[in-house]
Amino acid sequence: MTIRRSGLTLAAMPALLCALATAQQPLHTDTTAGSVPEVYKPTPSFDLTSIDKSANPCDDFYKFACGHFAANHPIPADQGATNSFYSLANVETQELRGILEKAEVNGSGRSPNEQKIGDYYHACMDEAGINQKGLTPIEPLLKRIDSMSTEQLPAIVGDMQRMGISVFFSYGEQQDFKDATKQIAEIDQGGLGMPEKDFYLRTGPKDVELRKDYVAFVTKILTLSGASPSEAATQADAIMALETSLAKASMGVTERRDPEKVYHLVPVATVADVFPEGVYSKFETAVHSPHVTELNDTNPAYLPAMIKIVSATDLPTLKAYLRFHLISAFSGNLPKPYDEATFDFYSRDLRGVKVQQARWKRCSSAVNHSIGEALGQVYVKQYFAGDSKAKMLQMVGDIEHAMGQDIDQLDWMSPETKVKAHVKLAGIANKIGYPDHWRDYSALSVKPEDAVGNAMRADEFENDRELNKIGKPVDHGEWGMTPPTVNAYYDPSMNDINFPAGILQPNFYDPKVDDAVNYGHIGAVIGHELTHGFDDEGKKFDAKGNLRDWWTPEDTRKFTAKTDCLVNEYSNFTVAGDQHVNGKLTLGENTADNGGLLLAYMAYMERAKKDNIDPSQKLDGYTQPQQFYIAWAQNWCANDRPESVRTQVLTDPHSPDKFRSNGPIVNQPAFASAFSCKSGSPMVPAKSCRVW
Ligand SMILES: [Zn+2]
Prior knowledge:
Layout: E1 6-7, H1 61-66, H2 69-72, E2 81-83, H3 84-104, H4 112-125, H5 127-133, H6 139-146, H7 153-162, E3 169-176, E4 179-189, H8 198-201, H9 205-224, H10 229-249, E5 265-267, H11 268-272, H12 279-286, E6 294-297, H13 302-311, H14 315-330, H15 336-351, H16 359-383, H17 386-409, H18 415-427, E7 429-433, H19 451-468, E8 489-491, E9 496-500, H20 515-532, H21 553-571, E10 574-575, E11 579-580, H22 587-610, H23 624-634, E12 638-640, H24 642-651, H25 657-665, H26 669-674
Parallel strand pairs: 4-6, 7-9
Antiparallel strand pairs: 1-8, 2-12, 3-4, 5-6, 8-9, 10-11
The structure holds zinc ion.
């Protein structure tokens, strides 16, 4: 949790948590079907083929707007789900492939960045070379682990964390929650191979099965790397016991949403003293941290428990744990059997994916993940139309204006708090497309035949870049997502909203369609990110990005009653039979979806007035407001595998797609008149929720 950001969807950083997935009744869906397409196309901006005219929009708007989507869009065998985020991401990965295949061709004409992205891709694509090398690229570190004494453990943990492998705990940099001008170190829980704490502790049959799958996966990795089957099985059980103890000492995903609960600024000695003497400074040196005087100990109960657990674990188990995590982390660039074992657990067991993605897709994503601003520079030149930035700025302006009006109209907020809410709104910075200043990769060495080495050096480069920020002034131009990313985020410490070039493409933004459709798509996305500044987390940060209460207690009380309404509404939604949405975990995102849709609608109606557009004017038989709401719902048309939905509901702060569509719809006053729905119909209930 280096930086707390509220993305539109979960960033697909670790393969196990790709949360663009959604819930959907498995009606006419054959989830085993779906070959992998050769060529990708985005979903149409206004998708008439998904509309089910036999469904009554007042009864179930998702069924009306998306009813035919699943039948028309079988889930490709290499995905856990499909929706418009996946479709656009596939189109862009295809575009990245074109850029990378060109950059891959060795020639003196390449710029330094083209050399890096081309050679990174080339090495990653060289499956034959990768298979032939076996474990050789990680052999030096494996040998150090195998021969390690307890005294050498802290340096090895530091070296591995520098490669992005958070064994036992994690360490990084963040803006100080209470002084956003400062960048500080943070130490956090970590060390788990399954998605989060409760995967180790829940007792249902699916959970027990997944734990068996995980132990089988660990056993497989250890066997492949040289342990005898019985030795590997014993070690895997011991690793499971070790991680279960770490999980018990960890905070859960819902609790971690509260910034107060994960902020404990302490002198570094407070943390160092928890470790046996001398251990902390060895770790600090190995991880390449500057020496700090204070840091955020996110979960103060965790470190003492972790030290106790590690001290009570025998050395062979600690070695097996490190060995497993090292191999698992680099498995994508190791011989096929390692890669397949990792796929089997993280993609097949956790998300129901049937086949591994094509190598070109994974390598294109890997370049984007590792050196994304080098790749992004070429990407925006080729694919980011200049005029989309101007149009985006106009829409952002319209929606911020709507937020200002919305604040003025609230009947529950005191004038005092309203003044401060306006200050916060005015303080939000808008970032669109790509950074003004690109990241400098000149110190990073990328070689054409060294897939593992490239990944390691890129991770180390990124670790060092992050930790180097400690003690320095904040760079407000920095981006937390790469330009080709199909996503968006709000960062409470920066107080900025960010829209990468990747999401400013059809179907989210399309210069060829009516404003009504664009405001329902990207307009609501803008409203979503803006509302994050004022959701249950965002409200705790002020205009300057500091965790500081600017609300009167009475206004907070009224706000909480309103968000409780959303918690109840969403907790009643069920997926995959009887699994309930976690209303508390998803509260921030649900607040943002509800506020975002309302603000986008207000902004659209103003825009239509300014541009003399008659709202009753029809396209394909739908009025402008109807087009707006259909576009909104179609942001979330989805088809997904049950495993994928299950993992999403357990880990993801975003609600399943169907509820991202209908949850806010039932709370929109203008929806009923747009579709002439009678009050009391399922989409216009007598009681609804409204925060913003
Ligand atoms: Zn969000």
